[in-house]
Specification:
The protein is built from two helices and four strands. It is an alpha+beta fold and 90 residues long. The protein has one domain: Gyrase A, domain 2 (2-Layer Sandwich). Strands 1-2-4-3 form a four-stranded antiparallel beta sheet, covered by helices on one side. Helix 1 packs across helix 2. The chain starts with a strand and ends with a helix.
Length: 90
């Protein structure tokens, strides 16, 4: 999936996703909300039929891009745990 950086100013980050599907940006935003340093994480989209979703992240101390990277790592770990749980039930 292609991602375009719209704004990267330290504590504020805006990423545009080259898709109409909100699943991945919403998943990242949800995980970001578990980070105490994140003051805002949300997904913007002009209209369901047009436009591309944009992930907006604001932080207090750390760089927003680092918060997004950590959130993606945590999502990856959760997926590994789910995969392991499914494998045990076979």
């Amino acid at each position: 999936m292609e991602i375009k950086v719209i704004k990267n100013e330290g504590k504020e980050l805006m990423l545009e996703f080259e898709t109409k599907d909100l699943t991945i940006p919403d998943l990242i935003a949800h995980e970001l909300l578990n980070d105490n340093d994140v003051t805002f994480a949300g997904v913007l989209k002009d209209h369901p039929e047009v436009g591309k979703p944009m992930l907006v992240v604001k932080t207090n101390r750390k760089k927003a891009v680092d918060a997004v990277s950590s959130a993606i790592d945590m999502i990856g770990e959760s997926i590994k745990e789910m995969r392991a749980g499914i494998s045990k039930k076979r």
